[in-house]
UniProtKB/TrEMBL annotation:
This is HTH-type transcriptional regulator SarZ. It comes from Microbacterium proteolyticum. It holds the Pfam family Staph_reg_Sar_Rot. GO terms for molecular function: DNA binding; DNA-binding transcription factor activity. It comes from the Bacteria.
Length: 159
């Protein structure tokens, strides 16, 4: 067994990478990327929103999000409009074609669930909850490394 197979970080990396590849296989016939798909899902469920709030929801920076939204707008899935109150604020809305894609892509979550071996919604919910707990813990480690280093008795290296 390779050494990396014993690391939590590598197991997460490999699962993320492979899951993204599975989405790519399902989305390729629609000429969509995974980030475009999750943008559509967010707009389908949460409705029209600002580029800023969409970026926060998807954890994407504007350098990634803006060109992606431009491609989605060129494909006819979304529109971007500046608000009259503040020209700096851009709102993203689904077009009729973007709304119609929801039905065309309805099979994607079912395929992912089947591929993951989920037998019901509770299986998926358990994994999602565990991953959210992990994400929160890693954010805490990222934001407060000294506290975690001290808790495990590790030295803090100074530059």
């Amino acid at each position: 067994m390779p050494a990396v197979d014993t690391l939590v970080c590598f197991a997460l990396y490999a699962a993320n990478r492979t899951t993204t590849q599975a989405y790519r296989a399902l989305l390729e016939p629609f000429d969509l990327t995974y980030p475009q798909y999750i943008s559509l899902v967010t707009l389908w469920v949460d409705g029209e929103q600002t580029v800023k709030s969409l970026g926060e929801a998807l954890q994407l920076d504007s350098g990634t999000l803006s060109p992606m939204l431009a491609r989605m707008e060129a494909a006819g899935y979304v529109t971007r409009t500046r608000t009259s109150r503040d020209e700096r604020v851009v709102t993203v809305s689904l077009t009729e074609r973007g709304v119609a894609l929801r039905e065309e892509l309805a099979h994607v979550p079912r395929c992912i669930a089947a591929g993951a071996g989920f037998t019901d919604a509770d299986d998926a919910r358990e994994l999602i909850d565990a991953l959210h707990r992990l994400t929160d813990a890693m954010k805490d480690l990222r934001d407060h490394p000294d506290a975690v280093l001290a808790s495990v008795g590790a030295p803090r290296r100074t530059a």
